[in-house]
Design brief:
Blueprint: H1 4-13, E1 23-24, H2 25-32, H3 36-48, E2 52-54, E3 60-63, H4 65-77, H5 79-95, E4 99-105, E5 108-115, E6 124-125, E7 130-131, H6 137-143, H7 148-157, H8 171-184, E8 187-190, E9 197-205, E10 211-220, H9 221-224, H10 229-246
Antiparallel strand pairs: 1-3, 2-3, 4-5, 4-10, 5-6, 5-7, 8-9, 9-10
Helix pairs in contact: 1-3, 2-3, 5-10
């Protein structure tokens, strides 16, 4: 049974997103259809404990540093990040591209690790945004290798938005594209989420042939899908195999596509 005050606090925190980073007290109350006095008490408690912070000039609330701290703890303890971190850094350096790791979470892909090539940054970042699965390389790399039951359940419930003229929204077309992904061992996104942006991705496997997540190289379409595509794919497949084996994957299962 949900505790009402806790649920309301969670509802307030989940209002914030990439598209909306701050709210006034009245806006929070209106969004959740709650009395402003009720919201004020919860927001004040969240602010006092570092989960929200208030801009004294605009009187708007945004997410607090305590959430960042907890997110860093989560990312640091995530098993796939522990095994992938060094490999992702080397992949970024070799390919002069950004490299990312993501996991399946609540019908989206959550970026848990990404590294920049030298010249852009020298650090590995441990968490990032959620991305839409059906029209991104990383999402396709996971969808293509999950069980048929889970895949069909996802496609039946997901609202398939057409982000660009290249976005596949027909379920049969998506299934055909995922079948091609399984056949070649890697996924491709070409301007499906954002025009001019592309990506390639491979699944990451763990012990017991469990699908753990995906590894991707995103970037400008001409860089990812141009003359260097074959080299990038080989690097990606090799790195995906290294991470999978580090996580306990044994050759002989669905991840053998990495060896192509």
């Amino acid at each position: 049974m949900a505790i009402q005050s806790v649920q309301r606090a969670l509802n307030i925190l989940t209002l914030f997103s990439k598209s909306r980073l701050s709210y006034k007290l009245t806006e929070i109350a209106n969004a959740l259809d709650l009395r402003i006095t009720t919201v004020h008490g919860i927001v004040s408690t969240l602010e006092q404990n570092g989960f929200l912070r208030k801009n004294p000039r605009t009187r708007e609330y945004s997410l607090g540093t305590r959430l960042y701290e907890l997110g860093a703890y989560f990312a640091a303890e995530l098993e796939i990040n522990k095994h992938a971190s060094d490999h992702v850094q080397r992949l970024a350096r070799r390919t002069h591209s950004t490299a990312r790791v993501g996991i399946w979470d609540n019908n989206t892909v959550l970026i848990t690790l990404f590294a920049f090539p030298e010249g852009m940054a020298n650090t590995v970042h441990n968490f990032g945004p959620r991305i839409v699965p059906y029209c991104t390389a990383m999402g396709k790399a996971i969808l293509a290798f999950m069980s048929e039951k889970r895949l069909l359940a996802y496609l039946e419930t997901e609202q398939l938005v057409r982000y660009t003229r290249y976005t596949l929204t027909d379920r049969k077309a998506i299934l055909d594209d995922l079948a091609l992904t399984r056949e070649r061992g890697y996924a491709v996104n070409s301007s499906e989420l954002s025009l001019g942006r592309a990506g390639i991705a491979v699944p990451i496997w763990g012990a017991g042939q469990v699908l753990e997540g995906a590894l991707s190289i995103p970037g400008k379409e001409d860089k990812i899908l141009g003359k260097n595509l074959s080299s990038l794919v080989n690097d990606l497949l090799h790195t995906g195999a290294e991470i999978s084996q580090s996580m306990g994957y044994i050759l002989g299962g669905p991840g053998d596509s990495f060896q192509r």
